[in-house]
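Hi V.,

You were right to ask for the full record rather than a summary. Here it is.
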Amino acid sequence: MSIDDERDLGPEPDHESVARKILLDQLTGQARSRHELAERLARRNVPDDVAGRLLDRFEEVGLVDDEAFARSWVDSRQRTRGLARRALAQELRRKGVDDETAREVLAEVDPASEDQAARQLVRKKLRGLRGVDDTVAARRLVGMLARKGYSAGLAYAIVKDELAEAGREVSVD
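Predicted structure:
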């Protein structure tokens, strides 16, 4: 018998209690989608049947709720980053929120608040573009809005309005 055989390694860890601890740790501080939690459990080698059973139980008691997660995510990302619905839809997809839930949540986004967020982004960026040619400034602003998920038509219209408001005339058509 070798030294390794004599060493007491203790009982094998209980997969369910390990998984429960992982889930509770992950849900402390911020909500997560079921998909994100399932990925975390898989990375920690929790068997699929145990993970599925625990995730179902956490959903039953309301600790895992993809719809509430999506609402919170959309509200936060639109408020802090000024993202448009298209960009938010991509982020929700990456987070594993199903398309139907994402559509429902994104339908609640007020077009006026989306427009206002785009205008605030343009105004903020425009302050840093004072010494830049108007055409170049317009191109940069439209590009910024496009990266945030705004449609080309809306981006052009908002940039044109905000440039005019700032006394900078340029054709962005």
